[in-house]
Write a structure and sequence with these properties.
single chain, alpha/beta, Rossmann fold, Immunoglobulin-like, six-stranded mixed sheet
């Protein structure tokens, strides 16, 4: 390729516009006459999903074999940046080996609620932990010459109607909670691309949000990469280019190309903005094609890494009477459907076709444990089965220890579907109680992408939460159960007692046009700790087979120094955590304390180590809306150190001069002072926003381009309402089987515009608008418009495609071959 500036100068407006949308589902367009190649993208937060044959973006069709590593929510429990970078490098090698140039991940949205259906793909409820681990992934992946797209930028918290919901959030909460993790990644790892979210942010779609993409991402943080839509996330093509959005995926045909060209011709879009976006795309192409030879992959080594990651991620939550680790020769009954058929990853676009998968039943033979028997115990679909329970009880009675594998079923967690609650299926809880009554020495191994309520906790003498451990998760869990690995996982999110205790209960997921972030910064431990609400297990918590003590704290504005000692008889690792909270009066609305640093420390028995954690610029800052800048409030701050947010044995004070004086909290924010945010009234929320809240309800009139398709239920046309009933019947049937129908979920959560955006040019925006005429009750007129728009669109597509091919010197359309998008 030539120099980027020279290439841009030689491109026509049509060619420039064409480069800003995909050729098909996964590839960008080529310019043969200038030797600009296409690049291939693939999903890959925890494993490569390069599809073979017919392509789709939801993970429905087959993909090449790849190592399925533990999901991000799982690896987050390691709090280990070095391990995260190692996993990232492995992902980069596998991507390179498969010819993938851009890996779509990692995901680092903040977990606003434990009900988020895609939380298994995200790291944490805390931006510091999320950002640092995601940055490590990015550094690892890009070290192999493969680009990353940290996602979904930004404020993407729910799956329900995710493509149409407007996230209404105040500027301080936006900057401090929902953007800080992305800021850390951009500043510390220099990602070559970033992926925008589907949702609107304060009234503007993320990919068209100039405040987000230009003011913050590019001008403030210095991002110099490409901004790519989530698949189907494009809205106004010219608006996206103007705001800083680079590439629209997958291919919308040439509809967006025509609209960009028309906007330049009319003066609506400055060609300089178009040139800037094309330069970003060409720079991305140059970066990811610089490596001449594909990487090679050692699948055995990657499986071993996946096993180590799973073991290091597992969190020991309960271990009464030191039941674990299990001694050599212990007679073990393995019980539970998950012991034979593990749940090791989530559903949706991140679905990996693993090189192999091990189960507890498969892997126990390689240990020194004595398998007394296996009993399925319960059905996967949650239906009660007395015979299976009786078999499990019999197996438990024959064993020294019962290891019971429980977990969330597939339908509970999926892209496109938020969770309905925090409970395990009743059949699993009843199984646990029956097994524990037969053999009190019961170990529960929990699988799932997030928190579960644990009213059954006392029935388990030991509890290990393995989250979603990837293809080698069972082996990693057995390493922990047998003591081959001393558990060092620490919770990256709070486990609440009940859904009713969570800060967004009753508001999540929002079914309205808007999702109001009325809780402000009080999410996760920030809420529970400030309000003094009891939880099952606090943020940062995890047990070990040894014990640790903290001493000798010394603090300054720049750093924290202390000593950690292994006071037990076994080598092990602890995660030392540093929290900062302002004392006394404050002009700023604040949680009581926030994580500002951490370090994983490995110690031999009796060993002590002095640990120093640097306090960077993020430790004391707040975003001051009035000055539109980061500031530090003068005053006294408490520095607290310990193994989790609820156990901080070391505290000290530090006095800061600050950049702004301390003062009293604005009286309009008094409602928030103590973190009492469960029922925030309108006037208090609007005081936090600094403006009137937008209309939340859906209108009752005509359905529009960006209304969700599931609103066909209330369409004026009886044909449209019939179509809704037919589609919804399919959705409910899939849920009854325990397997989400991802196509239906994507359709229902999406707006009408996806009809044109996801058709590869078969449908245009004009056709979608014609279809809406029908949906809104003008049946015959609408049918006529649909037919006319379809024929007109096909002619326009052919003309534009032929013009582009001629200009670009492209002899063939690669969309006719591999990677063709389904019609």
């Amino acid at each position: 390729m030539k120099d980027t500036a020279q290439l841009v100068a030689e491109l026509s407006v049509l060619e420039k516009a064409a480069l800003l949308s995909g050729e098909n589902t996964w590839e960008t367009r080529t310019i043969d006459r200038l030797s600009v190649p296409s690049i291939w993208m693939a999903d890959g937060p925890h494993g490569i999903r390069r599809q073979v044959g017919s392509a789709d973006h939801l993970g429905i069709n087959g993909s090449e074999l790849a190592t399925c590593f533990p999901t991000s929510a799982t690896v987050a429990n390691t709090w280990d940046e070095e391990l995260a970078a190692e996993i990232g490098a492995a992902l980069g090698r596998e991507a390179s080996s498969q010819g993938v140039n851009v890996l779509l991940g990692p995901g680092l949205n903040i977990k606003r609620s434990p009900l988020g259906g895609r939380n298994f793909e995200y790291f944490s409820e805390d931006p510091e932990l999320s950002g640092r681990l995601a940055a490590a992934y990015v550094r690892g992946i890009q070290s192999e010459g493969v680009a990353t797209t940290p996602k979904h930028f930004a404020v993407n918290s729910q799956e329900l109607r995710r493509m149409v919901t407007d996230s209404v959030v105040d500027e301080r909460t936006l900057r401090e909670i929902y953007l800080t993790a992305f800021e850390i990644v951009v500043r510390e790892a220099n990602p070559w691309a970033i992926m925008t979210s589907y949702n609107l942010i304060n009234g503007t779609y993320a990919h068209e949000n100039a405040h987000l993409l230009r003011d913050i991402l590019r001008d403030e943080w210095g991002f110099d990469g490409a901004v790519i839509t989530d698949w189907g996330g494009g809205n106004g093509a010219a608006d996206g280019v103007r705001a800083g959005g680079t590439l629209e995926m997958p291919s919308p045909g040439f509809d967006s190309v025509r609209r960009i060209v028309a906007a330049v011709d009319s003066g609506e879009l400055d060609e300089a903005d178009l040139d800037a976006r094309v330069s970003e795309l060409l720079n991305l192409v140059a970066r990811v094609t610089a490596r001449a030879v594909r990487a090679s992959v050692d699948q055995e080594a990657h499986h071993a890494l996946a096993r180590r990651a799973a073991a290091e991620s597992a969190v020991l939550l309960r271990n009464d009477d030191a039941l674990l680790p299990l001694a050599s020769g212990t007679r073990v009954a393995l019980i539970g459907d998950f012991a034979e058929t593990p749940r090791y990853q989530g559903s949706g676009s991140s679905l990996v076709n693993p090189t192999r998968v091990t189960s507890l039943v498969d892997a126990i033979g390689a240990t020194d444990l004595d398998l007394a028997g296996f009993a399925r115990g319960c059905r996967r679909d949650g239906a009660a089965d007395a015979q299976l329970v009786a078999e499990a009880v019999a197996a438990a009675k024959r064993a020294d220890v019962a290891v019971l594998a429980l977990g969330l079923p597939e339908i509970a967690e999926s892209e496109g579907l938020d969770r309905s609650g925090l409970s395990l299926p009743d059949a699993q809880v009843q199984l646990l109680r029956a097994v524990a009554a037969a053999n009190p020495r019961t170990v529960v191994v929990l699988s799932g992408g997030g928190p579960v309520a644990m009213p059954w906790l006392r029935d388990a003498q030991a509890l290990v939460h393995g989250y979603l451990g990837g293809q080698a998760g069972a082996e990693g869990i057995l390493d922990v159960l047998t003591g081959g690995v001393n558990p060092a996982g620490r919770l990256a999110e709070t486990l609440p007692i009940a859904l009713g205790d969570t800060p967004t209960v009753g508001r999540f997921p929002s079914t309205n046009r808007t999702a109001e972030y009325r809780e402000g910064p009080f999410i996760g431990y920030r809420y529970y700790d400030t309000r003094g609400i009891e939880v099952t297990f606090p943020f940062g918590f995890g047990l070990s087979y040894t014990s640790f003590a903290y001493s000798d704290l010394s603090v300054s504005e720049e750093r924290v120094t202390f000593t950690v000692t292994n006071t037990g008889e076994t080598a092990g690792s602890d995660v030392a955590q540093v929290y900062v909270g302002k004392t006394g009066s404050s002009r700023v609305l604040r949680p009581s304390r926030e994580l500002k640093g951490f370090a994983k420390v490995h110690l031999e028995p009796g060993q002590s180590r002095e640990v120093t954690i640097e306090l960077g610029e993020r430790a004391f800052r707040f975003f001051d809306v009035e000055s539109d800048a980061w500031q530090t409030e003068a005053g006294e701050y408490e520095i607290a150190v310990g193994p989790n947010v609820a156990d901080l044995p070391l505290t000290a004070m530090v006095e800061l001069d600050g950049t702004v004086a301390s003062g009293a909290l604005d009286s309009t924010l008094e409602w928030y002072r103590t973190g009492d945010i469960r029922n925030v009234p309108d006037d208090a929320f609007e005081a936090l926003l600094g403006r009137r809240a937008p209309e939340a309800e859906w209108g009752s009139g005509r359905l529009g381009f960006n209304d969700p398709i599931d609103r066909l239920e209330v369409a004026r046309s009886p044909l449209a309402r019939l179509a809704f009933r037919i589609i919804d019947k399919r959705r409910r049937a899939a849920e009854a089987k325990g397997e989400p129908d991802l196509n239906i979920l994507f359709m229902f959560n999406g707006p009408f515009r996806v009809i044109s955006k996801m058709s590869g040019g078969l449908a245009t925006q004009r056709l979608t608008e014609a279809l809406l005429t029908l949906v809104n009750g003008q049946t015959f007129r609408g049918l006529g418009r649909v037919i006319a728009a379809f024929l007109r669109g096909r002619r326009a597509e052919k003309r534009t495609r032929d013009s582009f091919r001629a200009a670009a010197g492209n002899s063939s359309n690669r969309a006719d071959g591999a990677g063709k998008e389904d019609d």
